Amino acid sequence: MQNLIKRILATTFMVGISFAAAHAADKVFFLLPNETTIRFESRDAPFFIAAMKEKAPNVEVVVQNAQGDPSKQQAQVEDAIAQGAKVILLTSADANLAAGELAAAQKANVPVVLYDHDAVGGKADAHIVFDSLAVGQEQGKRAAELIKAMSKTPVKVARVKGNQGEYGTTQYEKGQNEYLQPLIDSGKIKVVCEQYTQNWDPVLAQSFAEDCLTKNGGDVDVFIGMNDGTTGGSVAALISQGFKPGEKLVTGGQDATVEALRYIAQGWQDNSVLKDLKVQANYAADVVSSIVAGKGVPKDLINGKVNNTFMDVPAVFLPVKNITKDNLDEVVKAGVWTWAEICKGVETTDICKKNM
């Protein structure tokens, strides 16, 4: 009798385990790089979670932030693997120090999809990214148009670049240079300061811009950044040194963060390249949900490749568009931000009075 009871309990226990295993949610980990580029916490993560809820409602999305620390992100990758991650969606904290993360995932046979940032030196299944060369071209074209229109020669320019060695930074610089280099060669532009910005940190960008202004006695005409964090650093430097909106040209933004759009409304910043983050998150969810379902990366979404020194990573390149004060309404039409959000605190600007 006791043996029969033991067998019944053992069978019940095994059925319970099987049932639990069958009904345990698949986990996807979205690993963010830092808190200084605010879009990842405030926009990308919520958009991705919402898209996954729609495309794969039974999948649990776990979001973690490396806070700019590559070693912390390495530990997060290892923890995700230990927790049975089906896919890791990775925005590297430092692309140049991500090889260990990719190696750990490959060893555990966990697919990695790169989101926005690249990751150098290891296997990745796909890369969801806005066309980085096109971003640089949009930034360079806009800056060149504005500089050509200036009556003075040379126009003194400070270049506030992104994180050195990243695929994105390299492509932004290449795209910008298509338009800026001819003006540098002709003498129209004189680059008086230039520097890469470690981990895209706006505080470092501000410090560089302040130093550049001091070194040149305030005689800097144009600050060209590579994202809204680096342009925002330049704006903060101008504010701290007592300049007024429009006295200096700040251009080269991207991401269309709400802070940058407020600067555009006020006249501090000229432009930001719109990258519709909802679109990016949706494409990421398409790829991730397909992998979780055992179907792999959807071939019809792949339209390019990104070489990360280890392999040509299949890429989903997304389109971009320059936003200035003249077409700020396109951000609202795209559903990225509302006029109320853009105009918060800057209600007295002409464009906000017109649209509020």
Distance between the termini: 80 Å
Question: What fraction of the residues are assigned to beta strands by DSSP?
Answer: 15-25%
Approximate helicity band: 40-55%
Mean of all residue-level pLDDT scores: 93
Rounded to the nearest angstrom, the radius of gyration is 24 Å
Which stretches of 5+ consecutive residues score pLDDT under 50?
8-23
Helices and strands: which structural class?
alpha/beta
Following the backbone from N to C, one meets helices and strands in this order, namely: HEHEHEHEEHEHEHEHEEHEHEEEHHH
Envelope shape: globular
Total strands: 14
Biggest sheet statistics? 7 strands, mixed
Number of helices: 13
Strand order of the largest sheet: 2-1-3-4-5-13-12
List the helices and strands and how they pair.
Blueprint: H1 2-23, E1 26-32, H2 39-55, E2 59-65, H3 70-82, E3 85-90, H4 99-107, E4 112-115, E5 126-130, H5 132-148, E6 155-160, H6 167-186, E7 189-195, H7 202-215, E8 222-224, H8 228-240, E9 249-251, E10 253-254, H9 258-266, E11 272-274, H10 277-292, E12 304-307, E13 312-318, E14 321-323, H11 329-333, H12 339-342, H13 350-355
Helix pairs in contact: 2-10, 3-4, 5-6, 7-8
Question: Care to give the gist of this entry?
Answer:
The protein is an alpha/beta fold. The chain is 46% helix and 19% strand.
Describe the structure.
This protein has 356 residues and is of the alpha/beta class. About 4% of the residues have low confidence. Helix 4 links the parallel strand 3 and strand 4. It contains 13 helices and 14 strands.
Feature tags:
14 strands, 46% helix, alpha/beta, 356 residues
